[in-house]
Every structure is written in structure tokens, then in C-alpha cells.
């Protein structure tokens, strides 16, 4: 059974400022390995590692067309279709576009929908988890992947397992976004809650059916935007007039929490991380451009200038050519506030 | 009576790293005003503000010849002689070179010897203090200037006043470099101790006499280096073979603490500061390239990149194109350690 990967590359790129920018959201940063997270995502599901995968379809913001072309060029790979959104309308719209597009050729095709900005070190384990989900997806379920939680993270979404469908596959009983600390600790303890990796496997026809039932406006806007889309270079541009009225909602809220067809593969233990803030990035080791004397627990990254930190602890220090961020390590909110302040000051050149 | 200003521009430029560099010590930085401290020093004693001053002689490290020419060009001023040292031999050697050079034309000329890297906001008050010292200098004293201390600074030198010579001029009774905190507090309380500004007024002949008495090797090395000096462009280059054996000592240690001819003008209250570390630099206000949210007491300077500091306090954050320093505000030593580390790593490009 062939699987069509669809990569969602819609990040806005503020949480890892100053490295991430509007024109270079975090999926295009080489933060963890010598490849960007976008490239790692492509390679994880490439036809070369598993011939069941088709070349990936990418759905991205219109301004990222050129960088995506460049990302594939660096990999010496040919992408599947690249679909550009004139505006961001969240993941339910992306699922609708992906399903409607793939269904044009094959209504029953299996789609693997996944974000471009997650870090998954164990690619083999990831593909094994997908294999476990195939049967449920073929049976009309929308399968999601439940990551075994390792700490009571309050920034992730959690899914509770329900009735068993097959080995490691359950009906999804409940969704919970960003729980408070106490709830997250209880989830961690009960062994029935998993992190929602935001990755989905489903038949195009099944997703279209559930969208029709639970989010019909999203489905119709996506289909209209595709119907009026135009080719622009190597990419397909969705029609702006048709797409912009589309309600902006996450696939979890719009469909998964409502449908009876939600399934979860769990536990998935592949080292998955959604790097949502500098606090979750490993520090760059001392080296040519990092000098640390004394202190401890700093997260230091530089794209060029030497960073010298002496006697300071638990700071985030990020340096790029045109900007430097210094904030406490435990204050991820600080980055957002800085970005807001820069917007107020009209510093679009730094965003 | 004409006065010959001699500007000592021999700083090595490590204490204000990363802004100060070997090729651009702190006197050439525009840290306090829109002019460098070198330029402010030149303007403070220019013939334009007081026709008693001759155009200044500059004694500087050999590699700083070009930047000094540029500093005068920016001011649209013509310097007096520029004398370049092949190696640094501290202030006693500079005083010897200055005196021997000026004495070639006029043995009795008054020399005002001063560092290029001090900040003195009250130029008029400074010139008034010099006027008070003229009589003592004409009488053969080496007059120094005692700054009224405003806090128990442990990094400065202190001078104790002795027998009165005239209004606000005393014999210097004792010198004390970098006292401990308790001693500095006692000095501040007793009203008889003043900060040593490192500025001297004397007759060329008087200095040569005292050097002969207390530091004859320094005097002879300076004279030999001048005798064998060569013109190089617009500058006079001291002979390296003659100058390099010169003992390296401060004028305070070599002469002032030993001579009976030390006089002090005090109190001098002109806002004098020797900016010896980032801790003493005023923070750059928020503006185009500084964004501070929350926190307090940070010293932030940038020469280009935007610096965004959120929720951090009492830090020094200095950003230039190729380097960023982050250190606690109360740890001036940190900068020295960073510079040492960079030397160890062979990063001459950053020094």
C-alpha cells in the first residue's frame, strides 16, 4: 500500500527569534543536525528509505516557495507537488487541501500528514509506528500518533487512549491541549495519556467525509481554492479569494475532538520533540565561536559572531548577524514579547 | 606662558573588549559623546579654546599611527608632532620621550602630559585647574591633579596632600595605588586624599632632572631612541633597538613617589572618569538597536546588531559585528579572562 506524505510547512517563525524569521521559520533552521528540520522530515519518509512512500507533497506559505525549492535542491531530491497558501488557515484547512488534492487521483489513497518542524531522531521507529496505523487508516480511521510522555510538559497536547482496535492501536477517547502542571503530572502517571505529535495517517476519502460532517466550510473553501488554483513556476498557488474566507482552526479542534473515527497509535517512543522555544534547544558546545567561562546551564547559539559568556548562568544567548537575544532560560514568553515590541517599533527588517 | 600638551595614547585595549581591540584601544571609541575620548582630549586643550596651548604632541603605539591621523582629520585639525613607540614601555618612558623631545626646542617649556582615554566633561574647570598649577611647575615642581573622590573606588590611585604651596596647590605627601575597600573609605572620609588623574604639568627640564635622579636608564633609553628616530610619513618613529631595553615603569612609581618635587592641585572637581571597565560605562538608552523588556541595571552597548534583553538584570551585554560579550555587571575581571581565553585559542582576529 502506497502512502502519500504531505508535509505541513506553515510555521510563522517567531518562537525561535532571532534565528527564525518570517522568511525563514524554524523548520528551515539547522538547529539539531547539519540538515534543517524540513529536510529531516523529507528524508524520514523518502521513497529511498521505504519504497511505499510517494515523493512528498508540501503545503506551505506562499513566501516560502523559493526556500522549499532550495531545501530539496540541497538534498538533490525531486519533490512531489508544492502547494502554496496565500494566507495561513491552520491545520484543518491544510488537511482539507491535502485530501482534496490527493483524492483527485485516488480517493482511497493513504495520506501521512505531518509538520515540517518536529525533531524525530528515530526514523525507523517512526516508520514502524506508521506501519501499525495502516490497518486502522484503511478501515476509515484517522490515526494519530501518541508519543510516550517523558515529563509533565504543559505546552503539548495530550490524547487519552480508549477501546483497543489492534496491537498498539486504540480509539482516541479524549483530547486535552496544554494542561496545567498538576493535570500533566496525573497524565504522566496514569499511563493512558500520550503527547499528540500532530501527525496523522488517513484515507483522503475518510478525511473529506469527516470534514464534511464537522467542518463543511473548511472543506468547501479548500476545494474551491484548489479548483481556482494556478501553476506558478513549479508550485500550485491556491486561489486567494477562495481560500481566505476559510475558517482558521486546528485539525484537532475541527475534526479529531468531534469525530468517532479518531484512532491513536501508542506508545510511540522515537525521541520526538516539538522544539517550541529556545529552552528546548541544546546548547552549542564551546568551539570556534562560543567561549563560556564559569556559570552553567546557558543555552548559547550563534550563526556567526563569537559569543563570550563569563560567569552567567541559565541564560538564553542567541546571536545572529543583525540581532542578539539575551533572556532567562525559563522564560520562553520573553521571545514573544521581544517580537511584539519589534513589530510595534516597525522593525520588519528584523522579523 | 605657552603650554605644550602631550597626549599619551598607549592603551592596549583589552578592558573594553569586544569594542576595544588591539588596533582600536578604548581612547578611539565613541563611548560617551559623538567624539572619541582621544578627540575629546585633543579638543580640551586645543589652541582654539585657549591660545596658551600649542598644537598637541601625541605619543602612541606604532600601529596606531593611521588611526591617530584619521582622528585629527575628522576634527579638521592639524596635530603637533606624532611620536610612535615600537613597543609599550609605560608612562615613565613616555614622560622621558616627551621631555627630551620638547627640550630640544625649549628646555624650560611647560608640558601638560595626559592620557588620551579619560573622560572629563568640565573642560573649563580642567583648564582652570591647569592655570592653578602653572606657578608650581614654573618653580620646578611636577604638578599632578587630584580629583575630589566621590566614592571609595578601589581601582584608582590616591594622593595625599602635604604642605600648602599656594591656593589649592600642595606638596604631594604620599601615593597609594588601588587601596582596599576599608582604606578607600577612610581616604574618602579624611578629605586629604584625592584620585590621581594621571595628568602632569611640569617643565621639560624639571622632568629630565628628576628622571636623571630616580630613573636614569629610562631617561637615557628615551634620549637614545629619539636620537636614532626616523620620520615615517607624518610621524616620528622611535628607534626600536634603543627603546626596547627601556625599563617599563609608571611615572608614579619611577619618579613621583620618590621625588621631593611632587605637587598636587586639589580638589579638582571636573567630572573626571577613567573608564576602565564596562561597569563604568553608561548604558545605551533604548532605541533603534536596543530593546529592553523588564529587568534592570543592565549595561548594554551595540555597534550594530540589535540587542534584545528580556527579563535579565545587572548584566553587561556588548555587541559588535563579530563578537558578543555577556557577563555580570559586577565582574570586570570577566573581560580580562575572556581576552586571555581568546589569546589561548589563537583568535587574534578578535583581539
Question: How does this model look, in words?
Answer:
The model of chain A has no long low-confidence stretch (mean pLDDT 94). A five-stranded mixed β-barrel of chain A has the order 6-9-7-8-12. A three-stranded mixed sheet of chain A has the order 15-17-18, with no helix packed on it. A two-stranded antiparallel sheet of chain A has the order 5-13. Chain A has ten helices and 18 strands. Chain A has helices at residues 37-44, 65-75, 90-103, 123-138, 181-190, 204-214, 216-227, 240-243, 251-256, 333-344; strands at residues 3-9, 57-61, 82-85, 110-115, 118-119, 142-147, 157-166, 169-177, 193-203, 230-232, 235-237, 262-268, 273-274, 290-293, 299-302, 306-310, 315-320, 323-328. Chain A has two domains: 3-274, Spore Coat Polysaccharide Biosynthesis Protein SpsA, Chain A, CATH 3.90.550.10; 278-350, no CATH class. By secondary structure, the first copy, chain A, is an alpha/beta fold. In chain A, helix 3 (90-103) crosses helix 6 (204-214). The first copy, chain A, is globular. Chain A binds chain B through residues 18, 291, 293-294, 302, 304-312, 315, 317, 319-328, 331, 334-335, 337-338, 341-342, 345, 347, 350, and chain B through 18, 291, 293-294, 302, 304-312, 315, 317, 319-328, 331, 334-335, 337-338, 341-342, 345, 347, 350.
